[in-house]
């Protein structure tokens, strides 16, 4: 406990010598939610970059259990380009839309009983700038890339903790979903190495109490993860044995960047595409629908609720958004969102091809990782993740085994470990890409079990 107060004091000293570039406020209630919020929600901006030209918006939810001791998660939404408000309201945040009673212009909010804030403090951040309510004051500040976003994530959490020193000694975990599999490990590595601002490993203060990272359905390698869709489609009987064998024989294990001259491979891939083009990649069990299918089971339709709700003026006022900084809030900045083979844009460069080398480096730093994958996600199938983890040639601490929720099999997990570092790979049975949306209890249980399983390492390191 003594060390905790020493660290907090050092952060206070650090803050005194760094002029505040943050504005924050506590949100007591939100339109379309009945009554005061029964949890602590803080929103605000962190100024970053040269002359604070980047103004980064965030949503911070205190743990509902023990905020002074519980872990602190910095959570990145996917894309890149998705707002942190999306997971806040659809996945692992404290609120959610009532899909059954809500209509497009009559939306109601309710509590999410499986919010990660039940056991942890969580910061949902709008990064890079140009996403959600974050904005840039200059053209230069509006530009980003995979590699820059890792540095920006590090700068954000450093400055946020300087503004919130009472959380300085809480165990810190970097987390995110989907494309953030390219970003999250590199943010964690930036913190471990202490680049650009101070060297954490040499003991310079203030230190960040980094313990590890958590990623959900991650993109980790821009070849193998897309390439794994073919094998996944066969395992789920979306393509036949003869199509599978013929394509495999003709494409030389390359189903993404096939050689144009290989006409047989191209013909086979066309057959594959014909079989899967009417399948929802985000959740293969979900029916194909669109926003005109106004039913609670259509995700394309219910995803419109957030766009409507957050653009109400009273909502933005309640969230303490700076008036006039954003013309219209968008769920995602589609100009920078990544897709297969997409080239760099004016505003964003996709300059990190693979984070497998990053994971290897993190394994040398007493780092704990949880990688959870939905077993019905074809955006980035669990097969690709499992393949690159095995390529690390780590010793298996606990072999493939089921894990349970309410005495039912909720998925399967394997734990790899080496010299104090570990990677837990876990599948979630019956879930899709937005994992916590489809299996909220399972996602919370898995995360909490993982934290508990290595708590002794965190307390002793």
TrEMBL record:
| InterPro entries reported in the protein's UniProt record | AB_hydrolase_fold, Peptidase_S10
- Which positions make up the signal peptide? 1-22
Q: Does the keyword Signal apply?
A: yes
Does Coiled coil show up as a keyword for this record? no
Keyword annotations: Signal
- Choose any GO biological process term that the UniProt entry carries and state it: proteolysis
Q: Which GO terms describe its molecular function?
A: acyltransferase activity, transferring groups other than amino-acyl groups; serine-type carboxypeptidase activity
Protein family according to the UniProt entry: Belongs to the peptidase S10 family.
Q: What is this protein called?
A: Peptidase S10, serine carboxypeptidase, Alpha/Beta hydrolase fold protein
* Native species: Centaurea solstitialis
């Amino acid at each position: 406990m003594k060390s905790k107060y020493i660290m907090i004091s050092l952060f206070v000293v650090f803050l005194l010598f760094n002029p505040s570039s943050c504005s924050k406020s506590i949100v007591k209630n939100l339109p379309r939610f009945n009554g005061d919020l029964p949890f602590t929600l803080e929103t605000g901006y962190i100024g970053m970059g040269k002359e604070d030209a980047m103004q980064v918006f965030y949503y911070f939810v205190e743990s509902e259990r023990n905020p002074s001791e519980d872990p602190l998660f910095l959570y990145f939404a996917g894309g890149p380009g998705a707002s942190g408000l999306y997971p806040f309201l659809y996945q692992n945040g404290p609120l959610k839309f009532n899909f059954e009673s809500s209509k497009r212009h009559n939306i109601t909010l309710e509590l999410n009983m499986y919010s990660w804030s039940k056991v942890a403090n969580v910061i949902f951040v709008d990064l890079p700038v140009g996403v959600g309510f974050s904005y840039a004051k200059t053209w230069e500040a509006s530009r980003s890339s995979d590699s820059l976003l890792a540095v920006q994530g590090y700068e954000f959490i450093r400055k946020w903790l300087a503004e919130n020193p009472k959380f300085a000694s809480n165990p810190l975990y970097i987390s995110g979903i989907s494309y953030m599999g390219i970003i999250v490990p590199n943010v964690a590595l930036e913190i471990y190495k202490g680049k650009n601002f101070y060297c954490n490993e040499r003991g310079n203060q203030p230190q960040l109490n980094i313990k590890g990272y958590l990623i959900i359905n991650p993109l980790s390698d821009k070849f193998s993860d897309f390439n794994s869709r073919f094998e996944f489609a066969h395992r789920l009987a979306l393509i036949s044995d003869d199509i599978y064998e013929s394509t495999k024989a003709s494409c030389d294990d390359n189903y993404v960047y096939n050689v144009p001259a290989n006409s047989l491979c191209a013909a086979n891939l066309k057959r594959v595409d014909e079989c899967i083009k009417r399948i929802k990649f985000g959740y293969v069990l979900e029916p194909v629908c669109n926003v005109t299918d106004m039913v609670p089971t259509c995700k394309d339709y219910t995803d419109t609720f957030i766009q409507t709700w957050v653009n109400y003026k009273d909502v933005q006022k309640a969230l303490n958004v700076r008036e006039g900084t954003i013309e219209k809030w968008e769920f995602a900045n589609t100009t920078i969102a990544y897709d297969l083979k997409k080239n760099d844009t004016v505003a964003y460069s996709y300059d990190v091809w693979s984070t497998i080398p990053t994971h290897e480096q993190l394994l040398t730093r007493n780092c704990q990782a949880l990688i959870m994958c939905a077993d019905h996600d074809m955006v980035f199938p669990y097969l690709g993740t499992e393949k690159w983890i095995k390529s690390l040639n780590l010793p298996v601490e606990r072999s493939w085994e089921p894990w349970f929720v309410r005495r039912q099999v909720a998925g399967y997990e394997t734990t790899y470990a080496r010299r104090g570092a570990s990677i837990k790979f876990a599948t979630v049975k019956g879930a899709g890409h937005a994992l916590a949306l489809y299996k909220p209890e399972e996602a919370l249980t898995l995360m909490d079990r993982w934290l508990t399983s290595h708590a002794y390492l965190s307390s002793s390191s």
